[in-house]
């Protein structure tokens, strides 16, 4: 099979692969730029960043690539509006957002000509997104890593969304290789979003220890946790997870109210930040369901070459 | 009871499929078993009915029927 281009508003990605946003600081400028340089859409995860950091990251990505660069921001973040507006001011190409549904962002997109792409997990929300003016939707199933909006498979939801709305549908959750991409296109998707595969890339912001955990992970290591955001999150068993499971006190020592609502069971930003920096004891490692299929840490260029070869080999 | 309340009540009954006597000023959307998508749809229906715009930040603070009615009164 030969993959078509992906059109989102005025943007045309030569390769219909969107790199999923991964906070905190796993997908920053180097990864996003590397993906954009391969003709895909690179995404900087801006949740948990300061305004200055967002500006720096976007400018750095622009120096490294002339391709398409977007940002991803968690709607549950208290500073959501400030973070997204900053990215728009910096001239970001598109905005992707999930973990809740912002209606305001569509207005910001309209005013600035920035395509807005919400992450949805149902045909119902896809219809609302269409009505609000979405340029495309990312349809994320339960196979995805990080915060989840559904317990249903991407393979079930994608055809439902394709039937419900006339918008480019980008399938996300559990896509690791070229065969998975072809399968998603056969369900009617016009693009795919992949994150877990790109954690294990040379350019990702994850510490070497983080990538090592990915390579060693088995199917039994993949678990669902109760994120303080109020959503389930998919990640990997590790000492931090065991503490959670055993009901140990992992409450944050300090808090800056970074989320609109938070159960304060533990600090999600701190836990993700620790993992990104390589603290595999006390960090929370988010991961997609099929991480076990990733066997090597590769340059983004090689990941793209392999994916496209695999796609080509499929009918 | 105000006209606004009656209109809100009609929208809530239609959107959430609840009984009329459940829709009281003090009832929260949670009490009425509304999930996050129900609330987005409800807010959009209220915007349309009353020709107002309810930004995310304000929508997040509206937890009860009474708060919705008060918000509409103040912003219409």
Automatic annotation (TrEMBL), chain A:
Keywords: Dioxygenase, Flavoprotein, FMN, Oxidoreductase. GO terms for molecular function: dioxygenase activity; nitronate monooxygenase activity. It holds the Pfam family NMO. It comes from the Bacteria. Gene3D superfamilies: Aldolase class I. The keyword Chloroplast does not apply. Nitronate monooxygenase that uses molecular oxygen to catalyze the oxidative denitrification of alkyl nitronates. Acts on propionate 3-nitronate (P3N), the presumed physiological substrate. Probably functions in the detoxification of P3N, a metabolic poison produced by plants and fungi as a defense mechanism. PANTHER family: 2-NITROPROPANE DIOXYGENASE. This is Probable nitronate monooxygenase. It comes from Heliophilum fasciatum.
UniProtKB/TrEMBL annotation, chain B:
This is Acyl carrier protein. Keywords: Cytoplasm, Fatty acid biosynthesis, Fatty acid metabolism, Lipid biosynthesis, Lipid metabolism, Phosphopantetheine, Phosphoprotein. InterPro entries: ACP (IPR003231), ACP-like_sf (IPR036736), PKS_PP-bd (IPR020806), PP-bd_ACP (IPR009081), Ppantetheine_attach_site (IPR006162). Residues 2-76 form the Carrier domain. Belongs to the acyl carrier protein (ACP) family. NCBIfam families: acyl_carrier, PRK00982.1-2, PRK00982.1-3, PRK00982.1-4, PRK00982.1-5. It comes from Heliophilum fasciatum. It is found in: Cytoplasm. GO terms for molecular function: acyl binding; acyl carrier activity; phosphopantetheine binding. The keyword Lipid biosynthesis applies. One of its GO terms (cellular component) is membrane. 4'-phosphopantetheine is transferred from CoA to a specific serine of apo-ACP by acpS. Carrier of the growing fatty acid chain in fatty acid biosynthesis. One of its GO terms (biological process) is lipid A biosynthetic process. Pathway: Lipid metabolism; fatty acid biosynthesis. Gene3D superfamilies: ACP-like. The modification O-(pantetheine 4'-phosphoryl)serine is found at residue 36.
